Amino acid sequence: MHPVLEDLIGLLRLERIEDNIFRGDSRDIGTSQVFGGQVLGQALSAAQNTVEGRVAHSLHAYFLRRGDVTAPIIYEVDRARDGGSFSNRRVVAIQHGRPILNLAASFQTPESGLEHQFEMPDVPGPDGLKDLTEIARDMLDHIPSKMWRFLTDKRPFEFRHVEPVNFELAEKLTPKKHVWIRAVDALPDNPVLHQNLLTYVSDYELLGTATMPHGLSFTRDNVIMASLDHALWFHSEVKMDQWLLYAMDSPGSSGGRGLARGQVFTEDGRLVASTAQEGLMRVIPAKDWRTQSKPGSQN
User: Which of 9, 46, 159, 288 lies 20 to 30 Å (CA to CA) from residue 181?
Assistant: First the structure.
């Protein structure tokens, strides 16, 4: 298996300290804090380790504080309920004695039922599109140096954008984008692992959709962005080593916050998951930027 992907899988496997307490490490992927998708994926993994015979169908999380990439994260699971068909778990992620994320996840015994879905957007397929790291390397002169590593390092997933990528976004665009995603290597046939990996990757790209109508870029120093919450619904089994279309849009922004939504489709058009995220979006006047603190507590 590709080493970068193997490392991510190991990262999502937690050390069990007690029945309901787990420990996870962190990885520095070039951001100033722990990547939100990592904490989401690990928190779901902690909850999954306390459930048998049921699969996750939804999770809802709030980011409370930025994570420290140099310190481990402790996950405490509350087995809130085990009913006839559904189980509910509450998870708190803790660093330095303080919570950095609260997550609630619901699990269901698999069953059949009524089905319908939106049609997949009519966009070009992944063949012939460049991976994001290739695009970034071709545009290094237009990328702030602090973002080089985040955009050019080898990743466990391929990201192929349907729309043109502009790291210095200046024009105002319709808040919609489509990205094809696939793991860089074949994966074990383990539905729990594939759910964890989708949870991890669902935090990529999403909030940035809310900046598109305003001609903003997260690479600018005077733009503060931070995820506030994240929701994910699993509609059916997902395969992360096959191409998935992540279709994102942003219905609105107000109060210094932007809302973004996503739908995840297989290449043959089956809807397998939906996401939603609200995040902080602040534009600081240049004269105030030097005295404005960076995001940490997300408020």
Answer: 46
